[in-house]
Amino acid sequence: MIIKTTKELVASEITDISVFKRRRQIIKAALAAMVAGEFIAPAIAANNNSNWANLPKSNYADKSLTPTPAGLIKNYTNYYEFAFNKQDSTDLAKNLRTDAWSVEITGEVEKPGHYYLEDILSQQSLQEYIYRFRCVEAWSMVVPWIGFPLADLLKSVQPLSTARFVKFTSVYQPDTMPKQASNQMLEWPYVEGLRIDEAMHPLTILAVGLYGDILPNQNGAPLRLIVPWKYGFKSIKAIVKIELLKRPPITSWNSFAPNEYGFYANVNPDVAHPRWSQNSERQLGSTFFTPRRQTELFNGYGEQVASLYSEMNLRHFF
Amino acid sequence: MTYLISRLWTLSIVGCLIPFLWLIVDITFDNLGSNPIQELHIRLGDWSLRFLWITLAITPIQTITKWRGMTDYRQLFGLCAFFYATLHVLGYLVVDHYFQWRIIGIDILESSYIWFGIIAYFITLLLALSSPKWAKKRLGKTWKKLHRFIYIAACAAIMHYFWQLKGNLADPLFYLLVIFILLGFRGLVWLKDRQLAQLMLPKSTK
Ligand code: HEM
């Protein structure tokens, strides 16, 4: 199924999605090779060369930011479906199956349906977004994500005027995700949510890559949300379902510990977590004897997003 | 075996220093992962707590083996726990915050898990200061009472650990279990001694 977009894209604008298809093609080609013999191999090799290294940078990407080294980003991430520590999560996430990924978009929309990720990508123009990423555990990094605005996808399925919230659901794959299999910690699958104006904000993206290549599994492959002014747990990984709703969804961490993790979870140095301060953060890649970074309100994106919350008491709606 | 026992003191000192040397090696070769400063806190905090365990295990071992003369070992391991706790605190103040007192102040005020750490550190500091032989002599009976606070230090350190997590409690629970077993053993011995004492007392004086 192909999504109709409001404006047709010229061929040159359409992103090269061959990187994304690469894994599938390798498998397919390998199977074909068994039948057809070896002469297919050069074709695969040619295909491997394409990547997303030279994508245009988003206007919103702060060009003054220096990205955190890729090795650090890829080895320091929470993924509670796999394990409760970052090292084991990274190792176990290798087992996640991401082939033939599709996303169900339902709820208050004109055109609900199941959409293959490949088809979604063929309609979106990918850009690089260099964003700060701030975890609720008080560490942060700068990540060159590759993705597209969530708003563009939502518009293509035509939200109804009754849509006031967006609910995101992660994959349920207990055979590869041990903590789902043993039903530990959170209610699985993982759920996150945004208000519709947050979801439509141009800073909010769906990411499919980082550092010029497809997302590593542990970083949320094949499709994750990035909301750079909120704590990292809002940026749900491995999305399989997007629902537009009239009422706020019940989200995972918020329902697990409502006094610790709010629905909004906007980065705010003045509102401490009940057990630890959010006033400063350790930037990955900084060395011994480098003081912590002073955390900024809305993670430094206040100019763009503060107006969304102008009438709200941020201490109450944390 | 006798060789080992005759070298036990030396081996213990080496054992106390191994985690420290290991940490130095890992720092030198940049082996501490993506967030080396946090890993430094974790290593030093964990080893401080483990040496608190070992210190607490000495008296039960002495009771079981009836081997006198383990007091020196208890002191050694206790001071070692204090040594790692001190490095842990210095790591926080210097390596992590580099003396940014304003940020440190806010961080401590707003982080209740650190309050438990401070309680634990304050107690280990008192115990370390009162550990020399002359201090022990001068304090007399009070010394024993004071040094029972080590159980409180261990529990506060475990609360400090437990309180910083997002909900995965297995590791601190394991530390707590060991402390309870050690404390339980002391409790049993105390009960038994009391019963024996009562049996041995002449009825009339009761
Ligand atoms: C006897 C005293 C103390 C002991 C035994 C102790 C022990 C520990 C332990 C076991 C951990 C957790 C390690 C892990 O995650 O495996 C830890 C973490 C930590 N402790 Fe302590 N601690 C003590 C005192 C303090 C004090 C006084 C401070 C601060 C002034 C402090 C600051 C920290 C910090 C910042 C962390 C790391 C939190 C993180 O993972 O981000 N500790 N400590």
Brief digest:
The complex is a heterodimer of chains A (318) and B (206). With 318 residues, chain A is of the alpha+beta class.
3D structure, described in words:
The complex is a heterodimer of chains A (318) and B (206). Chain A is of the alpha+beta class and 318 residues long. Chain A has a single domain (17-317), classed as Oxidoreductase, molybdopterin-binding domain (Sulfite Oxidase, Chain A, domain 2, Alpha-Beta Complex), CATH 3.90.420. In chain A, 22% of the residues lie in helices and 20% in strands. Chain A contains 10 helices and 12 strands. Chain B is globular. The mean pLDDT of chain B is 92. Chain B has one domain. In chain B, helix 2 (8-28) packs antiparallel against helix 3. Chain B contains 10 helices and no strands. With 206 residues, chain B is mainly α. Chain A binds chain B through residues 71-73, 75-76, 84-87, 137, 139, 185, 256-257, 272, 274-280, 282, 284, 286, 288-292, 294, and chain B through 27, 33-38, 40, 94-98, 100, 103, 106-107, 109-114, 163-164, 166-168, 170. The structure holds protoporphyrin IX containing FE. The site of protoporphyrin IX containing FE has 21 residues of chain B, from helix 3, helix 4, helix 6 and helix 9.
